[in-house]
Amino acid sequence: MAREGDTGCWCCCWRVLVVMLVMMVGAASAKLIYVEENLPLPGEESPPGSPWPLPREWSQSPLQVTLDPTTFIISADLLGCNVIDYAIHRYLNLTFIGGDTKADVGLPVLPFLNVTVASGCDHTPHLNLDPNYESYTLEITQTEEGVSGRLDAHTVWGGLRGLETFSQLVHIAEPDNVYRLNVTKIKDAPRFPHRGLLVDTARHFLPKNILLDVLDSMAWNKLNVLHWHIVDDQSFPYESRIFPNMSLYGAYTPRHVYTQGDVMDIVEFARYRGIRVIPEFDTPGHAQGFGKAFPHLLTPCYGDGKTAGTPKYPFHAAYENLDPTNPQVYDFLKAFLVDLKHTFVDGYIHMGLDEVFLPCWNSSPVVHEFMAKHNYTEVRDVEQHYVEKVLELAELTPLNYITWQDPADRGTKMQNTSVAQVWKDVSLSSKMRGWREYVRDLTEAGHQVIVSSCWYINYITYGQDWKNFYKCDPTDFQGTPQQKALVLGGEATMWGEYVDATNLLPRLWPRASAAAERLWSVPLSEAPSVDIAAYRLDQHRCRMLRRGIPAQPILNGYCGEWEVPQPTTSATNPPAEAPAGDQTQGESQGDQPSSAATTVAPPAATPAPEATQNESTGGAGTR
Ligand SMILES: *[C@@H]1O[C@H](CO)[C@@H](O)[C@H](O)[C@H]1NC(C)=O
Ligand SMILES: *[C@@H]1O[C@H](CO)[C@@H](O)[C@H](O)[C@H]1NC(C)=O
Ligand SMILES: *[C@@H]1O[C@H](CO)[C@@H](O)[C@H](O)[C@H]1NC(C)=O
Ligand SMILES: *[C@@H]1O[C@H](CO)[C@@H](O)[C@H](O)[C@H]1NC(C)=O
Ligand SMILES: *[C@@H]1O[C@H](CO)[C@@H](O)[C@H](O)[C@H]1NC(C)=O
Ligand SMILES: *[C@@H]1O[C@H](CO)[C@@H](O)[C@H](O)[C@H]1NC(C)=O
Ligand SMILES: *[C@@H]1O[C@H](CO)[C@@H](O)[C@H](O)[C@H]1NC(C)=O
C-alpha cells in the first residue's frame, strides 16, 4: 500500500511544474498516482475496480459492500468438475492478494459468490462460434435479506471469464486498507471466439515457466488461444515423439527443448484457463529447423549456379525450404502431423505455408526438372504443388488447419473449417496492400479469417503505442455482414527475434491488453476513447504487477507499492526512505519524456526498421 508520506515527499522533491491527478485505484491495490507535467491528462478517470476488458453491459452503483477474506466462499453447483474447482481456488487467491487487507467494518459483507454452470462440466475448450460459449452474468446485490453474489454461465469457460471479472471488481480502499466491491450487474459475452496471442520459441527459447506466466496473464485479459510458433529456421525445440532426433539436432542445446512432458504441462495449464494451444509447424519455408535431423528433406540451393548446397547471400542460404520434389517429404510430414494429435488436444493446427522463399528453388536444376515434368512454367507453381499436397495430408489427420493468408490469397482451395491468418499490410512492405483489402478479398472468397496485421506487438516505438493497437478493429473493412461474420477474431503477435525471457512479459503487457479488449468487447465505433481507456488500462497494468507480472508502464506515475523490483531488504540497498540521489535523477529525466503521455505515438503504418524488407525476400523477421 502507498503510505501517505510517500506521496508527500515524492511530490515536494519534484521541482518541475507538476499537475498531480491523484486517484484511488482498485484491484491494483493501493494508490495509483498519475503525474503529468504542464498539461492535465485528457479523458476521465475510471473508478477503482474497473475491469479490463470492458464488459458488454455493466450497470454500476455507488453502493458498496465489503468482503472478509477469512470467511468468503465461492461455491459452484457442479460437483467434481476440475476446471471449476481449480478456478475457484485460483480466483480466491487472486481476489485477495493484498497481504494485511481486511473487511471494512463499516459496510455490509458479501458472504459468498454462487456459480452456476448450465451445461455441466467440460474439460477442453475448442473453437465455438456460439456467443454463449463464454458468456456470463455477474450480479452483486444488496437487499433487505442481505448481500449476495451470483455468477451464471452456460459453460465452465463462461464461468472462468466471470470469475476473472469478479476478481477485478474487488478493490482495496485507502487509507484503511480494506476490501470493497460495488453493487454491480454485468452481462458479458465475447465479441469474437478466437482471441489469440502468438509467441515464438524458435528465434529465442522461452523457458516453460515464462510460458506459464504468459498463459496466466492471457486469462486475466480473457484471451483464449496461444498460437505457439514453436519451431523455425533458427531452432527446433519441440521434442517429437516419433522423431526425437529433430530436437536432438535442431534445438540450440539439450537445455533448449520442450519435452513431451513440458508440452503436455503447458497444454494442461492452458486448458484449466480456457485457453487453446495451437502449435505452428511452418513449412515449406521457415523450415531449416526440420533439416538438422533430416538434411535430405531440404532443397539444396545452387547459390554459385553450379554446386548443390551453396548460398547466395543475401538472397538465400545454402538450404532454405523443404524439397517439394522429394516424395519422402510428404511421407515424413504425414507421420509427423498425425502424431501431433497425441500431444496437442486442440482440434486445430497451424500449418504456416507463408513467405516461401522462391529464389532458392529457382536456382535448383532439380526443381527445374520437376517443373518440366509437370509442365509448370513458374516456380510459384511448385509452391502451389507443395501446398495442395500438404493440405491433402492435413485432411487425413483429425486436425483442422489454420494457415497464414498466403495460400488463400492465391485462391487455394481449402477445407471450409480452415482459417486464414491475415498478417500482411502495406506498413510491412510497399509491395503489400492494406490489411483491410486482404480481409475483404479473403472473406469475399468465403474464407474464415483471423487478423494480426495491426497487432504486431513485437514492433516497439516510443510512447503510447498501445493506442494504435486499441484503435485497430478486425471488422473495419468494406464488406457485407456475411463477410464480417467470417472474421473469427485476431491474434497479437510477439515474434521472437529480439525477445526472450528477459523482455517478453514487459513488452507483452499491457500492450497486448489493447488487442484483448478489442477482441472481447464492443467494436471500435462503440468503444470508449483511448484517453478514457488509458485510466482503466493503467489500473489493469497495476493489477498485473500486483499479480506478479512485470507489465510496463503506460503513463507517468506509480502503482502504489507494486513496482518491480521492490527492495525487500536493506542488505544491498539503502533504507526505504528515498535517497536524495534517486530523486535528483528523477527530476532531470522527468523533463524529457514529458511528451510521452501527451503526444500520440506515430501511426501504426510507420514501418519498423526490420519490417521494411520486400515480401519476396521474406525470411526471419518480415512478419
Ligand atoms: C463505487 O462506489 C463508489 C462510492 O460510491 C463510487 O465513487 C464509484 O464510482 C463506484 N464504482 C463503480 C465502478 O461504479
Ligand atoms: C496465493 O498464491 C500464492 C502463490 O501460490 C501464495 O504465495 C499466496 O500465499 C496465496 N495467497 C492467498 C491469499 O491465498
Ligand atoms: C450460495 O452458496 C452458499 C455457500 O455455499 C450456500 O449456503 C447458499 O445456499 C447458496 N445460495 C444459493 C441461492 O444457491
Ligand atoms: C534422425 O532419425 C531418422 C529416423 O527417424 C533418421 O533417418 C535420420 O538419419 C536421423 N538423423 C540424424 C542426423 O541422425
Ligand atoms: C505436359 O504437356 C505435354 C504436352 O502438352 C503432355 O503430353 C503431358 O501429358 C503434360 N504432362 C502433365 C504432367 O500434365
Ligand atoms: C462446412 O461444410 C459442411 C458440410 O458441407 C457444413 O455442414 C458445415 O457447416 C460447413 N462449415 C463451415 C464452417 O462453413
Ligand atoms: C526490394 O525489391 C526491390 C526491387 O526488386 C530492390 O531494388 C530492393 O533493393 C529490395 N529491397 C530490399 C530491402 O530488399
TrEMBL record:
The UniProt record lists the keyword Transmembrane helix: yes
Top-level class of the enzyme under EC nomenclature: hydrolase
Ranges annotated as biased composition (Polar residues): 582-595
Gene Ontology terms: cellular component: lysosome; membrane
Reactions mediated catalytically: Hydrolysis of terminal non-reducing N-acetyl-D-hexosamine residues in N-acetyl-beta-D-hexosaminides
Active site: 355
A GO term, aspect molecular function: beta-N-acetylhexosaminidase activity
Disulfides per UniProt: 81-121, 301-360, 542-559
Gene3D superfamilies assigned: Chitobiase/beta-hexosaminidase domain 2-like (3.30.379.10), Glycosidases (3.20.20.80)
Entry's Gene Ontology BP terms: carbohydrate metabolic process; ganglioside catabolic process; glycosaminoglycan metabolic process
Keyword Acyltransferase attached: no
Domain Glycoside hydrolase family 20 catalytic: 192-521
Domain Beta-hexosaminidase eukaryotic type N-terminal intervals: 51-169
UniProt EC number: 3.2.1.52
Swiss-Prot/TrEMBL keywords: Disulfide bond, Glycoprotein, Glycosidase, Hydrolase, Membrane, Signal, Transmembrane, Transmembrane helix
Compositionally biased residues, Low complexity: 596-612
Membrane-spanning parts: 12-34
Region described as Disordered: 565-623
Family listed: Belongs to the glycosyl hydrolase 20 family.
Name of the protein in question: Beta-hexosaminidase
